[in-house]
Amino acid sequence: MRVLLRPVRHGVVLNYLAQLMMLLGAGLLVPVPAALLLAEWWMALAHLGLGAAVAGLGWVLRRITVESAIRPAEALVVGSIIYLVTTLTLSPIMRLGGLPWDDAIFESMSSCTTTGLSMIADTSQVPRTLLFTRALMQWYGGLGFVILTLAVLVPPGSSASRLLTTQMEKGEIVPSAVAAARSLAALYAAYTLATILLLLLTGMGLFDSVCHGLATVSTGGFSTHNASVASTWLPSLLVLIPFMLIGAWPLTIYRRWRSEGLKALRNDRQVRVLTALALVWVAAFAVMFATTDRSAGKGLGDALFLGVSVQTGTGFTTVAPKALSPLAKLVMLAPMNIGGALGSTAGAIKIYRLLVLAALLRMTIFRVALRPNVVKPFLVEGRSLGRDEVETVAAFVIGYVALLGLSTACFVASGYDPLNSLFECSSALGASGFTVGLTSRRLATWHKMLLTLNMWVGRIEIIPAALALYPPIWLGRRRNAG
Fold first, then answer.
1. 122: buried, middle or exposed (CB in 10 Å: 19+, 13-18, 0-12)?
2. Are 396 and 462 in contact (CB under 8 A)?
3. Cβ of 37: how many Cβ atoms within 10 Å?
4. Phi, psi of 121 (to 5 degrees)
5. Fewer CB in 10 Å around end: N or C, the chain?
6. Using CA atoms, how far apart are residues 227 and 106, in angstroms rounded to an integer?
7. Could you report the per-residue pLDDT of 37-66, keeping only the tens digit for each?
8. How far apart are CA 181 and CA 147, in angstroms?
9. Using one digit for the tens of pLDDT, what is the confidence trace for 93-133?
């Protein structure tokens, strides 16, 4: 297998990475006007300098490399590395905002991976520009740097459009990938703007509305307040709920929604399952807030918000997970690790993969009773799946569970409570952002880096991470590249 492996072409990887870096540099310039309006000139200079530096480096790399048709493995590697580059670029800004270096790296990774775990204990003690920047980076990371790059920088017909296959559902690519990316970006921006405007209409301030709007559709969950949205009044919470659901829908349904309307939602099995699961958790939390967790939740309102937030992986909360009973924490583990739809801004295993595994289990059971010569196609959502795709799904779930187990074991071995350890690692790997208190500056640096690794892997997923970290992919002999 290793002999037959085709290593990535460094020049091709650098060329496409350079395009993403140019967009990242432009994105870092967006907070500059905000910093000036907030009278935080040092933050404006930091964003201006880092934005110009990363964009300039990207421009140079693109000039000295040649664009060529990109292979699937190279596309996955590029999509993985951009999150590392973004984290390293953001870290000096977080450090300037008062965070130690290990916390700055953690906060930066949590931002661009839309996780929402934070090392900032008191949001009033950091520059407001920093709060805006991390929400903006969640917005970028939620849609995906690849889709934004295709929408903004790449001309139609470019071979860079092949990168889109790393960001969307299999079988959902339209003939013009660049046109699809632009359409998705426009709709994503429209939903974000709608969220912000509706929050403003409920009386939320402009700064808070913008930050929460950016973090909602991206299912990021960073709030401008210490207690998340616990102090937010009901009308604003009711605005957030539908947009959290929209963020957890497949990105491709945005296009179908424009042409098919509500029929697109009814016909999408992932949307139906997501809605059903959210209702299950709402009912479960409503019962617990009326019985075992009466002191933590305030009834149906908190149950409704928490049920939707945890299933979509947004991370906004009106109750403190630390105050929940062990039973409530156990219940939260299920939606945190299931996540939203495949091709959405949410993380975790994803509903589509669970549907594949359920179909595999059903077929395995039925196969025992079938006649030997019967050929039964493997169907999921009306689409026939090949053996390779089913094996890929199974490998992903095995890798996800293995990493979650190993990470949890590391915390338990250090003396942390097993349930809380599993909860925190699930939150990091599933990009949920809920915390029971383990995520804090008191955490050892190596524990912070372990959670940072989980956030990175959880965003880009197991297989791309394994490819990016596999030495032969980088060091293989070129004559074996084919």
1. exposed
2. yes
3. 12
4. -75, -35
5. N
6. 19
7. 999 999 999 999 999 999 999 999 999 988
8. 5
9. 999 999 999 999 999 999 999 999 999 999 999 999 999 99
Number of H helices, E strands in the chain: 21, 2
Backbone angles phi, psi at 380, to 5 degrees: -135, 120
217 part of a folded domain: yes
pTM reported for the whole predicted model: 0.90
Rounded-to-integer distance, Cα 446 and Cα 428, Å: 15
Task: Provide the residue range defining the domain that includes 146.
Answer: 10-338
Q: Can you list the pairs that 373-381 forms with residues at least 24 positions away whose Cβ atoms lie under 8 Å?
A: 380/352, 380/355, 380/356, 381/269, 381/270, 381/352, 381/355
Q: How far apart are CA 282 and CA 310, in angstroms?
A: 10
Looking at the domain assignment, is residue 366 inside a domain? no
Query: Phi/psi of residue 384, each to 5°?
Result: -80, 130
Instruction: Name residue, tokens 């935080």.
Output: 40
Residue 219, classed as helix, strand or coil, is coil
List, in sequence order, every residue forming a beta bridge with 380; answer none if it has no partner.
383
In terms of C-beta density within 10 A (0-12 exposed, 13-18 middle, 19 or more buried), how is residue 207 classed?
Answer: middle
Residues of the chain with confidence (pLDDT) below 70: 1-4, 145-146, 148-180, 255, 368-385, 476-482
Rg (CA), the chain: 22
Task: Give how many domains the chain has, as a whole number.
Answer: 1
Residue type for position 158: S
Q: CA geometry: angle at 61 spanning 56 and 67, to 5°?
A: 130
Amino acid at 177: A
Residue with tokens 């949920």: 432
Exposure string over 333-356, b if 16+ CB within 10 A, otherwise e: bebbbbbbbbbbbbbbbbbbbbbb
Please name every residue paired with 379 in a beta bridge, in sequence order, or none if there are none.
Answer: 384
Domain for residue 238, yes or no? yes
Q: What are phi and psi of 39, to 5 degrees?
A: 60, 35
